[in-house]
């Protein structure tokens, strides 16, 4: 996990903990999950780009 | 988007699931909570006017013996009349979207072939798919809520966001549209919360990066196919 993702997740957790209204707490809990999904997609997309660029059949 | 949430539940006050969803819906601009069982006799003209005013209809109900409670059937039979829901010209609901929020007390795995109920939720909900097709409405994949009572606080938070997206987002299953929803919600908070503003900018940048990578992948795949 990269530093930006760690920072985003920490902020989402902190905001959820400090929220006064339930809907704010729920939003930041859900945002934490979204951040993880976004990171996974970024990693997979970057991996696919790298993989396709390094396709040995195209050397 | 204007969304009419058509709730069919004979004992709404006793349902923690529905009380949770009602609280979630209360924070959504443009969403109207419409509890059928509380109406008594249906005023057909008023019901039809409410339907026409909406861009999206969401049928929300618990599964009772594998189907919706009686009030939804009665409402459909009385309100969705010929000439309104369908006619030779296609009816007046064409172009709207139809969603379903369905709750049940079994685990999610129960509703599939070979599961303990041995039938899929899609099979049980197929009459509504037929209804959407007949009336020219776009069907959304149902939002399923299995065993609400067993959800953790984290899972309830996720359901909160998923449900609000279901009420407001054009294609709620699409990741990019979910991202836009989170970004809009962060932008609204950014006015009073500098951390939310920073989170918004960072997430937006990453979403742009993802779109750019996906574009590159599309081009690479096309290049390989040539």
TrEMBL record, chain A:
Name this protein carries in UniProt = Uncharacterized protein
Q: State the species of origin.
A: Lacticaseibacillus jixianensis
Q: Source taxonomy lineage?
A: Bacteria, Bacillati, Bacillota, Bacilli, Lactobacillales
Automatic annotation (TrEMBL), chain B:
EC identifiers of the protein: 1.-.-.-, 1.6.99.-
Name all Flavodoxin-like fold domain ranges: 1-166
Highest taxon above the source species = Bacteria
Say if the entry is tagged with keyword Oxidoreductase. Answer: yes
* A GO term for molecular function: oxidoreductase activity
Q: Spell out the Pfam families in the cross-references.
A: Flavodoxin_2
Q: Which UniProt keywords apply?
A: Oxidoreductase
Q: What is this protein called?
A: NAD(P)H-dependent oxidoreductase
Native organism is Lacticaseibacillus jixianensis
Q: What is the lineage of its organism?
A: Bacteria, Bacillati, Bacillota, Bacilli, Lactobacillales
């Amino acid at each position: 996990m990269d530093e930006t993702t760690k920072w985003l997740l920490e902020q989402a957790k902190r905001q959820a903990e400090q929220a006064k209204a339930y809907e704010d707490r729920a939003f930041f809990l859900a945002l934490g999950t979204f951040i993880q999904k976004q990171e996974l997609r970024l990693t997979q997309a970057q991996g696919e780009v790298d993989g396709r660029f390094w396709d040995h059949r195209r050397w | 988007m204007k969304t009419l949430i058509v709730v069919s539940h004979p004992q709404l006050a006793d349902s923690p699931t529905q009380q949770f969803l009602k609280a979630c819906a209360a924070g959504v601009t443009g969403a109207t909570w419409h509890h059928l069982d509380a109406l008594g006799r249906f005023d057909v003209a008023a019901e039809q006017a409410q339907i026409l005013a909406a861009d999206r209809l969401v049928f929300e109900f618990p599964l009772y013996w594998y189907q919706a409670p009686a009030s939804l059937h009665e409402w459909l039979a009385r309100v969705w009349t010929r000439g309104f829901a369908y006619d030779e010209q296609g009816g007046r609901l064409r172009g709207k979207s139809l969603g379903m929020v369905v709750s049940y007390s079994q685990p999610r795995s129960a509703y599939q072939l070979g599961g303990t109920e041995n039938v899929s939720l899609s099979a049980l909900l197929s009459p509504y798919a037929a209804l959407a097709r007949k009336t020219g409405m776009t069907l959304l994949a149902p939002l399923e809520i299995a065993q609400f009572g067993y959800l953790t606080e984290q899972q309830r938070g996720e359901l909160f966001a998923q449900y609000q997206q279901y009420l407001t987002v054009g294609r709620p299953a699409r990741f990019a549209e979910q991202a836009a929803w989170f970004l809009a919600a962060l932008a609204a908070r950014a006015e009073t919360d500098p951390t939310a503003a920073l989170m918004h900018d960072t997430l937006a940048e990453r979403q742009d990066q993802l779109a750019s990578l996906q574009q590159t992948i599309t081009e690479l795949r096309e290049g390989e196919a040539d």
